[in-house]
Amino acid sequence: MGLQARVMAWIAAAVAVLGLSGCGYNDFQRLDEQVKAAWSEVLNQYQRRADLIPNIVNTVKGEASFEQDTLTKVVEARAKATSIQVTPETLNNPEAFNKFQQAQGELTSALSRLIAVSENYPNLKTNQGFQDLRVQLEGTENRITVARNRYIKAVAEYNVLARQFPTNLTAMIFSYSVKPTFTVDNEAQISKPPTVDFGKQPAPAAPAASK
Q1: What's the total number of domains in the chain?
Q2: Where is 101: in which H helix or E strand?
Q3: Apex CA 96: angle with CA 145 and CA 71, to 5°?
Q4: For 141-161, what is each residue's pLDDT tens digit?
Q5: Kind and range of the H or E element at 115?
Q6: Residue 164 lies in a domain
Q7: Is-contact 133 61, C-beta < 8 A?
Q8: pTM of the full predicted structure?
């Protein structure tokens, strides 16, 4: 290849690079990695919570009169949430993403009810092991909230790039589709305090009549 041909090739390559940069290609690369990193942190915090649950359940089981229905719902919700296989494609599949977030929302609700019901059991309130687990759970829930908010922010920035002109043309060419995020309804479900009906607790036995 002659000198002139090489110069022309370099110029063409430079124009192509500048063109890709100007149409948002490099931004898509950066934001896509940012979304993946934020999503990975969300999963890490959900896993941290899932790992705490068996110890919480086993501790509560020591309270013989504790609501079995509440415990069962926590165990079932955890099993459902952890059975959903999460892959990199989940971020590009709204149906799979919604299924995942719904399962996690159900687990959040079940745990909230368990903690609320535990307030009605003096033995649990004075059980240091249970209180330590509760503090760990509350800390993990806070980390989940932070991780979710970072993910929502990262996805919002990415989706704006994928929708606006002219970068939406780049998105079409390179298959950068809009990514799903946590919904407003889901946020409301998670933040809604549980309804606890202590009327379902077994009534204490009446004292024996004196003779």
Answers
A1: 1
A2: helix 94-118
A3: 60
A4: 999 999 999 999 999 999 999
A5: helix 94-118
A6: yes
A7: no
A8: 0.74
